[in-house]
Amino acid sequence: MSDYLAIRPVTRLDYEQWLPLWDGYNAFYGRAGETALHPDITRMTWSRFFDAYEPMHALVAESEGRLIGLTHYIFHRSTTSIQPNCYLQDLFTDEAARGKGAGRALINGVYEAAKRVGSPRVYWLTHETNDTAMQLYDKVAEKPGFVMYRKMF
What we know:
This protein has 153 residues and is α+β, with helices and mostly antiparallel strands. 32% of the residues lie in helices and 26% in strands. It has a single domain (5-138), classed as Gcn5-related N-acetyltransferase (GNAT) (Aminopeptidase).
């Protein structure tokens, strides 16, 4: 990877390079093979990035004309603020690009997008075993101490 790294909104022309990153992200969280997301979910996710009525957005990290990372984020209402909160839902960098600043740059890109709309916070979740990512997260954000609960249907 060169020293030049661009963080920019995803474009429709990025699909062929975005898809392997998306697949890598999903595989990291155990969604591959028999447990892979249905292709309809991937198609819908991709289409939402380009729908002005959707609160979902995507940034990519590009180096030397190649996408090396992605992040997806969602603005949503909250009962504790007037401006929307920003949920950083997905963050992934190509294995060869890790430790070289792409993840931090993508997070900063989301921070900038949130600031532009007046969002009071950006927050995200990661799995408790994702030690490598948490080394970065501990440097760029705080852990508020909340525990997630969920029920799947």
